[in-house]
Amino acid sequence: MKNITDYIQQWANTYKDDMQNNIMPFWIKYGLDRVNGGIYTCVDRDGALMDSTKSVWFQGRFAFTCSYAYNHIEKNPAWLQAAKSTLDFIEKYCFDSDGRMYFEMTADGRPLRKRRYIFSESFAAIAMSEYSIASGDKAYAVKALELFKRMQYFLQTPGLLAPKYTDTLPMKGHSITMILINVASRIREAIQDECLTRQIDESISCLEKDFLHPEFKALLETIGPNGEFIDSNMGRTINPGHCIETAWFLLEESKLRGGDKNIKELGLKILDWSWEWGWDKEFGGIINFKDCRNLPSQDYAQDMKFWWPQTEAIIATLYAYLMTKEEKYLKMHQQISEWTYTHFPDKEYGEWYGYLHRDGTVAQPAKGNLFKGPFHIPRMMTKGYMLCEEIMSEIKKK
């Protein structure tokens, strides 16, 4: 790459401009519920509301997004106000009497569905901690820590959370292991407690010892309780986007620890392996699923291009370059960025499509549903801008 400085500056400008003039305005205009509080995400291509059902995941995700952007992109009071409105909705309506959170709500806050896992709690916790930093209100950091400890209690107490499968074949999943790293890290920015770094250490150890399978050069999504390989469709599944997200969580933690060598090498290994599994050499982009024995994947969306694996790859490759200065990661960033920005942004109505066919054509044009909304894309833009600024700062020091 001839001029790294110009390249990084161009992307820093793109991420910031996209946040200020595209992504945040779209969701503030079409998603924000100014009557009940909180955020709608089931919107059509042009922002028209298709379903007023509220994803509890996204109440936390949106409050985090607004606060994170406020802290790192622009001190925009509308963003802070939107975060507060959404947190108020969470606290008023989204918790059941047992301390667990719901998964879906009506527009006015009546519960529709509750699921067995604790991702709603995860996103509410990072929203509270980030809002605490943005607003200066320490009470929200305390709430975030309390919620995190409650999550740990739910996870560690047998019988409180229903298992996904029966005891016939005990197993554990990658998703909760990896998300706890990020949740603990985000809360730790707002408040200190020994349980946070301890949880990160435990999750990292589990990833390396159990989920990483060198015989396949892969991080697997589902394994036995002690890392046993399960030779089934589910047990052989690789989710490249998920693994790449894990990789940048690890690189971030390494950086926060002054460049911890072991954690950095683990993150880079996962990134390299997962890129090899996920990058579509024929059409470009990161696909959804692979089988570690190269058998046919059972998931019907296995070769589609969803929005979020691309955004995680953008962050991870920037982090890898920042941490190593190896130009191969900048070239990977260029590959994924050019492909993503060619295919996902909707140049007519704003925001991004979420679901593309393997060849990059649009599978369906809606901008949101219960699983896609203002999180992965704006988090990438905020984090991408921050990483570009750090890289530029290091270049200037030379």
UniProtKB/TrEMBL annotation:
GO terms for molecular function: N-acylglucosamine 2-epimerase activity. The keyword Isomerase applies. Its EC number is 5.1.3.8. Keywords: Isomerase. InterPro entries: 6-hairpin_glycosidase_sf, 6hp_glycosidase-like_sf, AGE/CE. One of its GO terms (biological process) is carbohydrate metabolic process. Belongs to the N-acylglucosamine 2-epimerase family. This is N-acylglucosamine 2-epimerase. It comes from Bacteroides ovatus (strain ATCC 8483 / DSM 1896 / JCM 5824 / BCRC 10623 / CCUG 4943 / NCTC 11153).
